[in-house]
Amino acid sequence: MVYELISKVYLLNDISLSNMRDKITKLIDETLAKDEYYLSFHRKNTFKNYSYDNFYNVENDGVYREGKIYSFRIRTVDAQLSNYLEKALFTAYTSDMKVLTVTKRTIPKKYLERIFSITPIVIKTEEGYWRTHVSIEEFEKKLRNNLIKNYNTFYNTKINEDFELFTYIEFNNQKPISVPFKNNITLLGDKVTFHVSENEMAQKLTYFAIGVGIGECGSRGCGFIGYQYL
């Protein structure tokens, strides 16, 4: 199952759009660090199995203001993690924000027509941004392979990979989207819509992606997915 936690936060300082992802990441990281098990989990180089989006409602000038209330969503396929975050986030705060409420729901399992990235999708390569040296087919293959590996690891299985995942994909940005990262590094990402095949494995994998995100750095706010049912 995919679990969604909707957190309402009260801002203690103004937060710019360019800093928002880091501020939300800090809140989640510090919440995980309160527990010895999840502190160890956070430090491991492994699939984190959660993703999150940005503040809403959206501020048109890109400044989220002190004294106002905003919401953001965390999704995960890990029931234990969802239970921990539901309780621990309720009392969480940083120097920039304080959590007011946390509401949990389960994303219904229905046939999916398409999924689309709400936050930019990032894939890392040795040469930098993928478009300079990787074809669209190879880009899609990297996303598919990463998602299958995550699925196999989480469910301790090895699926038959002979299936069509997406019928076609559409890029919704005309130029790369900057994603500020740690240590003053900026990654480049894309907004993409994926039209989902109707076979059983494609549907299972796409539903899984709603929880964990698609691409890399899902636990850093990248690749958070919106969805539309058939």
Automatic annotation (TrEMBL):
Keywords, alphabetical: Antiviral defense, RNA-binding
A GO term, aspect molecular function: hydrolase activity, acting on ester bonds
Gene Ontology biological-process annotations: defense response to virus
A Pfam short name: Cas_Cas6_C
Residues in CRISPR associated protein Cas6 C-terminal domain copies: 115-225
Entry similarity comment: Belongs to the CRISPR-associated protein Cas6/Cse3/CasE family.
Protein name: CRISPR-associated endoribonuclease Cas6
Species in which this protein is naturally found: Anaerocolumna aminovalerica
Organism placement in taxonomy: Bacteria, Bacillati, Bacillota, Clostridia, Lachnospirales
